[in-house]
Amino acid sequence: MAPVDKLDRTGGRFFWLGNFEIGQTTQLVVDFKNSSVIGRFHHRIFDDHGRLVAEAAGGIQGREPDPFFLRHGREFTLQPGHYRLVTEISSPFLLAQPVPYLDTLAHYRQAIQPGDALTLLCLGVLLGLMFYYAVLASMRRNATDGFYALFILGNLLYNGTALLVYPDLFGLHWFYLISFPILFSNGSYVLFVLRLLDITSASNPRLYRLGMALLGLFAAFVLLAVFKPNWSLELDRAGVGLFLAYGLLSGIVRTRQGHFSAPMYLAAVLVFFVLGALSISLGRLGEVYTIYIEHLGLLAVTVEVLLLALVLARQFSQLRMQYERAHVNATRDALTDLQNRRGFVEAGNSEVERSKRYGHPLSVIYLDLDNFKQLNDTRGHDTGDAALSAIAGALRSVLRSNDLLARLGGDEFAMLLPEIGPEAATEVGRKIFAAVNSALRDFPPVTASIGVIRFARVRFTFHDIMKLADELMYEVKKAGKNDVRFRHYE
User: Fold this and answer.
1) Which of 263, 276, 438, 440 has the fewest CB atoms inside 10 Å of its own CB, making it the most exposed?
2) HSE on the CB side for 284, CA within 13 Å?
3) Taking each helix axis from N to C terminus, what angle separates 143-162 and 180-196, rounded to the nearest 10 degrees?
4) Tell me: domain 114-327, CATH 1.20.1070, correct?
5) Helix 262-281 crosses helix 293-331 at what angle (to 10 degrees)?
């Protein structure tokens, strides 16, 4: 057998030979460093007379149970003496260079815990966020979320198999779960970037054409992998490098063009680019034994998924702000900045139902200006607008912060006063009448007719309450205008 410095990543059958000495009876573990992507392995230990004293087999394609969770470690008890370890490795492909090493049982059990914890934590995060994005895609009918859910799914299948979760927990030993899902998830990521950053043939023709070319290339990778399956992981590696470069380029271009989500996406893909580049380029981890290159790749994907969750949160925050701004614009009067009829009806219905539920008192005030049309006709609409603004200021000066105040339209105003007794409501009605008359001194011949309805206990709907207040205000009009009237309901 001719020695080699580097194993062929497209797989094959290899042997590793090593000599070691034991000074006392010891429980040892033989495992591999750098990578857990191994199809089959077979350890044979010979004594210094060439006799086979121990052997063990395993691997992702093997059916032998793993004594250590998420590890290829095999335990041996050896007497003092000189030994030779012969390890046979047979694998369709290799992610990195698996190198056998020996450790004491006690130290090995302790040393593997951080890597195993990292595996389970990251896979848990990815599983939760995959379902989250899948639900978002379904509820929002948004292909962007769907493409990213598929990207996460591909990485879940790859990492769960490569790091022995599925073989150990579910008995899944199909080796190509490591490579084929990534061939499809690479394309899903490009589609995700196109959608997230709004890259179209019209807005960014060059980036769009480049993205389409990558999708075509990835489709060719899938076909090639069908005929050359032992090349599938190398095609994955090339695809990851290409989509990382495309994501980075797209993030830079769209950030410079002022796209809303691009800066945060660029920060996420930069971290992903650095960690991902390490995971697809390294063949060895030096003197690190129980952390694999697969762990680096899993960490890279998890960090990027978490950072992109912040991008999604920012999008939701922006949508919420836009909704609130639109709602405010739809429920506020532009001239007086009071609530308009729509806003008053929405808030009034809720307040009336709350008062009915808890038995609280409530009052409603309806105000209509007298002779307002005459003011507009003689002094112009600018003066009329000034009068309406002056009245809004006068009403604000009298009412409490929790009272509802609205301009219903034209020269009509309405107020709803929750949790206020009859005497206090009467006093507020009189103060409003005085404040409005004072504000209208500069706008003759305009005056105000006001109706105040007081409820010790609310038994009507909001619509009926407003109708009663409107009718009372019209009684003032019919009686000569420029007055305030009160009506009480027990």
Assistant:
1) 438
2) 8
3) 150
4) yes
5) 170
pLDDT digits (tens, 9 = 90+) for 123-158: 999 999 999 889 888 887 888 889 989 999 999 999
Task: Output the CA angle 432-435-439, nearest 5 degrees.
Answer: 135
Tell me how far apart the alpha carbons of residues 233 and 181 are, in angstroms, rounded to a whole number: 10
- Percent of residues, the chain, with pLDDT higher than 70: 95
Q: Which fold has domain 341-489?
A: Alpha-Beta Plaits (3.30.70)
Q: Enter the pTM of the model.
A: 0.71
Q: CATH fold of 12-110, please?
A: Jelly Rolls (2.60.120)
* CATH 2.60.120 boundaries in the chain: 12-110
The DSSP annotation for 377-413 comes to: HHH-HHHHHHHHHHHHHHHHHHS-TTSEEEEEETTEE
| Catalytic residue positions, numbered | 411
Could you give the CA distance from residue 363 to residue 486 in angstroms, rounded to a whole number? 10
Residue with tokens 């179209």: 200
Q: What is the pLDDT of residues 397-439, one digit of tens each?
A: 999 989 999 999 889 999 999 999 889 999 999 999 999 999 9
Among 236, 241, 255, which residue's Cα sits nearest to residue 196? 255
Q: Where in the chain is the domain with CATH 3.30.70.270?
A: 341-489
- CA dihedral in degrees (276, 277, 280, 283; nearest 10)? -120
Secondary structure element (H or E) that encloses residue 462, with its range: helix 462-478
- Residue 299 CA to residue 34 CA, distance in Å, equals 15
